[in-house]
Amino acid sequence: GQVINLADYRPTDFVLERVDLTFELDPTETKVEARLIFHRREGVDPSAPLILDGDELNLSSLLFDQNELAPERYTVTPESLVIRDLPETVPFEVTVTTIINPEANTQLMGLYRTSGIYCTQCEAEGFRRITYFPDRPDVLAPYTVNIIADKDANPLLLSNGNFLGGAGYGPGKHFAAWFDPHPKPSYLFALVAGDLGVVEDTFTTMSGREVVLKIYVEHGKEPRAAYAMDALKRSMKWDEEVFGREYDLDIFMIVAVSDFNMGAMENKGLNIFNDKYVLADPETATDADYANIEAIIAHEYFHNWTGNRITCRDWFQLCLKEGLTVYRDHEFSSDQRSRPVKRIAEVRHLKSEQFPEDGGPLAHPVRPTKYREINNFYTTTVYEKGSEVTRMIATLLGRETFKKGMGLYFDRHDGQAVTIEDFVKCFEDASGRDLAQFSLWYHQAGTPLVTASGSYDAGAKSFSLSLEQMTPATPGQPTKEPMHIPLSLALFAEDGSKFEPASVDGAEYAGEVLHLTARTQTAVFHGVASRPVVSINRSFSAPINLHFDQSPADLALLARYETDHFARWQALTDLALPNLLKAARDAREGAPIVCEQTFVDTLIAAAADESLEPAFRAQALALPSESDIARELGSNIDPDAVHAGRQAIMKQIAEAGKATFAALYDAMTTPGEFSPDAKSAGRRALRNTALTYLSYAESSPARAKAAFDGANNMTDLSHALTILAHRFPDSAEAKAALETFRSRFQDNALVVDKWFAIQAGIPGPGALDRVKALMENPLFKRTNPNRMRSLVGTFAFGNPTGFGRADGEGYRFLASQILDIDQRNPQLAARLLTSMRSWRSLESARADHARSALMEIEKADSLSTDVRDIVERTLK
Ligand code: HT7
Ligand code: ZN
């Protein structure tokens, strides 16, 4: 794996005009014939050869304009096919035949088999595992696909685009032909064949065209696809209403498979999904599952315009489609659900996943300039920070101008493969604003730290806010330029009303957004009648760390009066954090742990405040996680102390608020038939949060056991089980509940994943032995990515005390698993290994153990490029 540099980009020498593929499917010997028509690009050296990519391929035959090609005119290896002496101007046809083995494809990239189904995953570079091809996103062509297969085993033969026709094809076989008229890059190619059940519906587009919608799932699981279908239709409608985007084929298909490396894939007209993000019913799916399904169905559908119609010039531009599409799916969910609650969830996720990435050895810009393995750049920085950068453009320009810029982007670049510069230019042209400094958000890695301090001049009736920004050094970027940071900001009076300053000096301030552009800047707000309480970075308008020393009284005022409910939640979190940090430090020193009364009172008051929606109250009560606390501590982390400190704080809040929590638990029921809507989900969330606190106040599993026994949906059932297992792991109640759960759901893989994950998350040093024992359980399936993530992934990412046990055995266990998984599925191995990214922040004994486990991996001799890239960057 050598390094690929953005600076080396140049267009291909040959233009691909058309692609005709014929697959003769066989589990172990599938024949792929690719007829490719090319012509030399104008101005290209007439002696330049055609270079096609391959990956573990073997060539079976090669024709040039239908004739066999003389061996001296080409060179072939498993990784490339080079053809020489090609026509100077006229188009020519290359017919490549390869034989591939889907059954042996354990990487799940290219054409593979899962539960007897043929399926493909081509992003980013999987197509080259099917045939020799210019496998890069700036090569766009229309595709015709013919699929031939055994009829009984594969009644279903699917590919991209519109169905052309099908018929019998010799004894026991049949074929189907598909044509996709929209020029597309190879990473959007898809093929599915097998025997599946289907749910069908239709959608009438804004111009009156009827589109057939089909969701394919395993036979018998059709009823569990109803919610996904509903989410799809809502997504299609939303994209028409909000962005004016209409669907562009006669049919839109989704196929759910059980072995998949990521969440889902936006192949043109034929999305392929991890079945975890399609299948749901009340008995087996949690409210979080429903919300994820809605978001991912929307995300993949939205790619039809942001990614497919307009695609990336090269993989450095990945955020062009991913950041933008995440922004679009966030907006969709905000419109479908509660905007502030959705924003809180987004920011929690960003801080717990992206901030550690941006602050550690794997930090990279949203638009990187080099990579060794592109699979390792499907990161939370590209996706989530990329989305935040898009959101900031909308904040800077205002909603209407942002939409104008998007319109320009769709008009100007439809059918093209473009760059971030092309994207940003549309917003410059739409607004007349220079976005050069703003673009640093794409190029500079690291989370900016903004330090704020305020002072009020009663005589002048003015308030000065001094701001300083600093972006920390990250790998390859020792120094940083000041960024353009849009800070949504408001000033509040003691009675909770908002000040409207007469004028502002020292910074641009319009529409309640303050533009911080210099390294240091002082904004002076005039006409402020009394000392204001400032709310900075409302709605999390910029993805920054903010240091602002606000008194508990000021924070309590914001928690009570802010009109932006995200900011209310932020104020409550800012009240909680110092308590949790102090508790962790005190626990490490064996000192008594005590919590500030203002914080406890404010939190319990918020919990009981009926003017606030239940989902918001649940978010407010969910304290920062142990990983969040560790990140805020920054260095010398002892996971046991963080855990002990947080537990002690939970107990103090629980005891002080026992009556409130008991009342909420009784009140927040959801009578009648189960509904996954956001409002009902919010009531369940608040009720379950109350149950968690009660488990601390009551120190007995009785109430959780009763909740487990009485649950009529998976949200309540799995929450009760988690309390039993995590809080009372040695109790008879926990053991019995785990067993009941297993025997009831052992035939449902997605629920079995939950059973593994709940146990992998049980805190404490005993977790490792439990995880090892679970790996021997007959239900454990080492080759299934969902199962691996639920057991090993939850242990490594979600169990700081178990994974980080003091003797380093957790890290060594992970290293051995990585080496094993890497043999089959490098992408999965590399992703699980990123759980080690914050190892340098650990206290020294654990850090030493972590380093030596990483070095064990590094010295193994047959590492994949994926794992080698991650381990070397993590150790650097
Ligand atoms: N665009 C898709 C990314 C994806 C992927 C990437 C690498 C290897 C396997 C993969 N499966 C899906 C998903 C998305 O962001 O929409
Ligand atoms: Zn995506």
UniProtKB/TrEMBL annotation:
Lyase found in the keyword field: no
Catalyzed chemical reaction(s): Release of an N-terminal amino acid, Xaa-|-Yaa- from a peptide, amide or arylamide. Xaa is preferably Ala, but may be most amino acids including Pro (slow action). When a terminal hydrophobic residue is followed by a prolyl residue, the two may be released as an intact Xaa-Pro dipeptide
Top-level taxon: Bacteria
InterPro entries: Aminopeptidase_N-like_N, Aminopeptidase_N-like_N_sf, PepN_Ig-like_sf, Peptidase_M1, Peptidase_M1_dom, Peptidase_M1_pepN, Peptidase_M1_pepN_C, Peptidase_M1_pepN_C_sf
One Gene Ontology term of the molecular function aspect: alanyl aminopeptidase activity
Cofactor list: Zn(2+)
SUPFAM superfamilies with a match to the protein in the record: Leukotriene A4 hydrolase N-terminal domain, Metalloproteases ('zincins'), catalytic domain
UniProt-listed CDD domains: M1_APN (cd09600)
Domain Peptidase M1 membrane alanine aminopeptidase: 227-438
Its EC number(s): 3.4.11.2
Residues annotated as signal peptide: none
Domain Peptidase M1 alanyl aminopeptidase Ig-like fold: 446-548
Domain Aminopeptidase N-like N-terminal: start-end pairs: 20-188
Keyword Cell membrane included in the entry's annotation: no
Family: Belongs to the peptidase M1 family.
NCBIfam families: pepN_proteo
Protein name: Aminopeptidase N
